[in-house]
Amino acid sequence: MADSDPITGLSLPRGARVGLLGGSFNPAHEGHAHITREALKRFGLDRVVWLVSPGNPLKARGPAPLEERMAAARRVMRHPRVIVSDAETRLGTRHTAQTLERLRGLHPSVRFVWLMGADNLRQLHRWENWRSIMDQVPVGVLARPGDRMSAQTSVASRVYTSARIGQAASHLLPLIASPAWCFLNVPMMDVSSSAIRATGGWTAG
Ligand SMILES: Nc1ncnc2c1ncn2[C@@H]1O[C@H](COP(=O)(O)OP(=O)(O)OP(=O)(O)O)[C@@H](O)[C@H]1O
Ligand SMILES: O=C(O)c1ccc[n+]([C@@H]2O[C@H](COP(=O)([O-])O)[C@@H](O)[C@H]2O)c1
């Protein structure tokens, strides 16, 4: 049976383990697809939803129009268990803590996990109401070139040090009560949207 809501249009299996990968996706690239496949496997997820952001609150320059980023994301990620979604635009949220509150309210049976690359763990403490993110859902962090140490040194990792689970138990992450987080040392892909933009590989926005 599906757990659907008319606001975001998301239809998720009841009781499913669902990873949320929020991002500007300006544009989407193979690094996003790679960490998504790793997260599906290593965290034992049934679905991953790409939350294509209306605009990162910490980034001064706005991204390309949402429709262009959604279309590019759908070209990059074709997978039966991955959904590319504009849920934040439909909800009118752009801060992650608020997005999580809304999605959890709309999908009470679903076990959500917030997914992010290690660069975002480094600056998580600058996000609005960041502790609420850690307290609402388990967080899965995936290694990214240049950010291996963030699991040891970031403010968030130090504040929540006792909530960290080892990667040998990563498949349990969606089932563990928050706060809980896990750093996955997956093979890394040195690719970024900014590098693609710098080489003129994304003309939108
Ligand atoms: N190559 C990668 N390895 C690991 N995580 C990644 C990688 N690329 C993006 N991510 C993660 O995916 C999420 C969305 O990333 P985003 O859309 O900002 O892409 P980006 O390449 O980081 O963009 P930009 O270079 O413009 O900052 C973030 O949590 C980010 O950490
Ligand atoms: O909630 C916040 O304050 C906040 C601050 C910075 C980033 N985020 C979210 O983090 C995700 C990754 O953003 P980005 O731009 O690095 O792809 C995306 O979903 C953003 O909305 C959220």
Topology:
Blueprint: E1 2-4, E2 11-13, E3 17-23, H1 30-42, E4 47-52, H2 66-76, E5 82-85, H3 87-91, H4 96-106, E6 111-117, H5 118-123, H6 130-136, E7 139-142, H7 150-153, H8 155-159, E8 164-165, E9 181-184, H9 193-198
Parallel strand pairs: 3-4, 3-6, 4-5, 6-7, 7-9, 8-9
Antiparallel strand pairs: 1-2
Helix pairs in contact: 4-6
The structure holds adenosine-5'-triphosphate (ATP) and nicotinate mononucleotide.
Task: Tell me what you see in this structure.
It contains nine helices and nine strands. It is 33% helix and 20% strand. Strands 5-4-3-6-7-9-8 form a seven-stranded parallel beta sheet. A two-stranded antiparallel ribbon has the order 1-2. With 205 residues, it is α/β, with parallel strands linked by helices. The protein has helices at residues 30-42, 66-76, 87-91, 96-106, 118-123, 130-136, 150-153, 155-159, 193-198, and strands spanning 2-4, 11-13, 17-23, 47-52, 82-85, 111-117, 139-142, 164-165, 181-184. The structure holds adenosine-5'-triphosphate and nicotinate mononucleotide.
CATH domain class name: Alpha Beta
Total helical segments: 9
- List the ions, cofactors and other small molecules found in this model: adenosine-5'-triphosphate, nicotinate mononucleotide
Biggest sheet, in brief?
Answer: 7 strands, parallel
How many strand segments?
9
Output mean pLDDT: 95
Q: H/E element string?
A: EEEHEHEHHEHHEHHEEH
Fraction of residues in helix: 25-40%
Structural class: alpha/beta
Enzyme class: transferase
EC number: 2.7.7.18
Catalytic activity: nicotinate beta-D-ribonucleotide + ATP + H(+) = deamido-NAD(+) + diphosphate
GO molecular function, one term: ATP binding
